Amino acid sequence: MTAMALLFAAEASQAGVKSANELAKECIADNKAPCSRYILESIDTLENGRRLQGEPSCLAGDSSSEQIVKVFVRAILASYPYDELPASAAIENIYKDSCKNQN
User: Fold this and answer.
1) What is the per-residue pLDDT for 46?
2) Can you give the residue range of the structural domain that contains 28?
């Protein structure tokens, strides 16, 4: 696990989100705001890390925040390897997969 994933894991445990599966459940609940905020803040941190390393954005484009959250939630729900990962690690893995798909 990378240092960034460890940082996210610490933040996730503080927020009460332990696994990607739990995050996905929050994301399909009536109040989706905590889920969306967690995913978007995590993505912002990952994007900032890329920029600091001189790398281009992985998620640049016309996608709205809502669309980005939907893509990540679908990936968590559809991909069994993610469900028991810490939420931060699952988001980082999905993010990295998105980067690979854009190259």
Assistant:
1) 94
2) 3-102
- DSSP string covering 22-88: HHHHHHTSS--HHHHHHHHHHHHHHHHHHHHTTPPPSS-SS--HHHHHHHHHHHHHH-TTTTTSBHH
Number of structural domains in the chain: 1
Q: CA-CA distance, 22 to 62, in Å (whole number)?
A: 28
For residues 21-30, give the mean pLDDT.
83
pTM score: 0.75
Q: Can you give the pLDDT at residue 10?
A: 46
